[in-house]
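Please check this chain.
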Amino acid sequence: MKTRYVLLVMVLFLVAVMSATANAVVIKKELPQLSQEAYSVVVGRVVSMESRWDTDEGIINTYVTVRVREHVKGTPTKTDVVIRVPGGEVGDMGLYVSEAPWFEPDQEVMVFLGPESKGAHSVVGWYQGKLTIKNGKAEELDAPVDEVVKEVKGLGHHKGKPAPACYKLCGYTWKKNGLYSGGKWGPGNQGWSINNNNQDGLTDNQVATALTNGTAAWNGAGACWNFRAYSGAITHNNITGPVQNYINLITFGATGGSVATTYNWYLRKDRTSIIETDLVLDDSWIWAYEGCGSTTAFDLQDVATHELGHWLCLGDLYGAGDVEKTMYGYVDYGWCDKRTLHQCDIDGIRNIYGTCP
């Protein structure tokens, strides 16, 4: 049975000559669920990090070594545990996954570990499974570490909550003179194509219409940038993931369990110029052209409009007050709220691209 609640998450690829941003969809997991699913929960310090190409996966992974000082729950681990995290930099190429767990040298962390495989553990729940400890608090939850530990052990519930925000910019919020200078498209607009290899019987016209409606929502935000009209269909049934080929392609394929993933390729030298975007819609889920109210399918326009916000370099929001926003980070079968923009979505895109008539 397909899991009902899904977390829309952003992913960034940094490349020395060229970089890519990916926005992935993962399952939302609260602390009790993370704890239940984790092979082990540990607290410790990051003592080393090494990035390398994993040719079998075709991506860069970073191998983080954490020196364990407390085993909180689950199967005991070694004193030093190695954690494999998507992203990193090797030579001229880099990959940054903003909503995957982000580690830094000498950082104090609590990590929800998956079973060891090929000499390294994964992190359960992507970014949700890694908490940064600073001044006695788990920063991501704004809660004291002892409260979090009690909840992990099933002995209490933390009282912290993430700080509210109107909108979030993708990846790091690079700023110059107080202004956003991160990844974005240059002046003008950008065309896009569809590789309609879906398994749910959606026609080319249905997919194109759903995506066109999604681009129209963002085009109406009054920002100084617009999506160009649909450029036409491309038949490449073997394309099931991002391919850096200077074609802005929306395709159905495999994302490793996410609902949809967006990849923004951009020049790394100044970290501002996006040159290509690929959007992959995972075809292991059921997609519907008119999916509003469905109990088994995701509405294509709803999810696509959210992902197109990532295309333009907006990030996900997870607060209770964010539910009505297109960039709200959760989705359910039959939801259609993301088809239209909230004022905060509009404010965010205008922050990046400026305001135009």
Remarks:
- The chain has two domains: 30-152, 168-353.
- Confidence is low (pLDDT under 50) at residues 1-25, 172-178.
